[in-house]
Design brief:
The protein is of the alpha+beta class and 152 residues long. The chain is built from five helices and five strands. Bound molecules: FE2/S2 (inorganic) cluster (2 copies). Residues 97-102, 134-137 line the site of one FE2/S2 (inorganic) cluster.
């Protein structure tokens, strides 16, 4: 076992993890943050996307030990004082989800995109989110939600 310390959604956690433990399972099973979903386990779907030191990463592609010392943000960390984050609100208003399984990953990828590029073009949005898969929506309303969150 290895001891790690991470800050997740502003709270510091110290934990013992197996060296082979994937970060997504550490978040879900050890910290109980089950908003981050597992769709494929093989870095294809983006359902497990979180922010690591502000950058979006697929948390099934990292080991928990690789996050030692990092600041992580998961979907649970976005809403403040009972108010949805603007990206969450935009997904809600633009009907950008159906089953919702992919949604935490899309929202986190969008937060990262807009931090880097506050006014992305439609092409830039589609390109940026191509690592996230959705089986339900056909993507159009997701793109609209990102545009709405960007105020465009
Ligand atoms: S579960 Fe991580 S990319 Fe699919
Ligand atoms: S809303 Fe169902 S997979 Fe995207």
């Amino acid at each position: 076992m290895r001891r790690i310390a991470v800050t997740v959604n502003g709270t510091r956690h110290e934990a013992e993890v197996e060296p082979r433990q994937l970060l997504v399972y550490f978040l879900r099973e050890q910290l109980g943050l089950t908003g981050t979903n597992v769709g494929c386990d093989t870095s294809s779907c983006g359902a497990c996307t979180i922010l690591l030191n502000g950058e979006s990463v697929k948390s099934c592609t990292l080991l928990a030990v690789q996050a030692d010392g990092a600041e992580l943000t998961t979907i649970e960390g976005l809403a403040k004082d009972g108010a949805l984050h603007p990206v969450q609100q935009a997904f809600h208003e633009q009907h950008a989800l159906q089953c919702g399984y992919c949604t935490p990953g899309f929202v986190m990828a969008t937060v990262s995109l807009l931090a880097e590029n506050p006014k992305p073009s439609e092409e830039e949005i589609r390109h940026s989110l191509e690592g996230n898969l959705c089986r339900c929506t056909g993507y159009h309303n997701i793109v609209r939600a990102v545009q709405a969150a960007a105020g465009s």
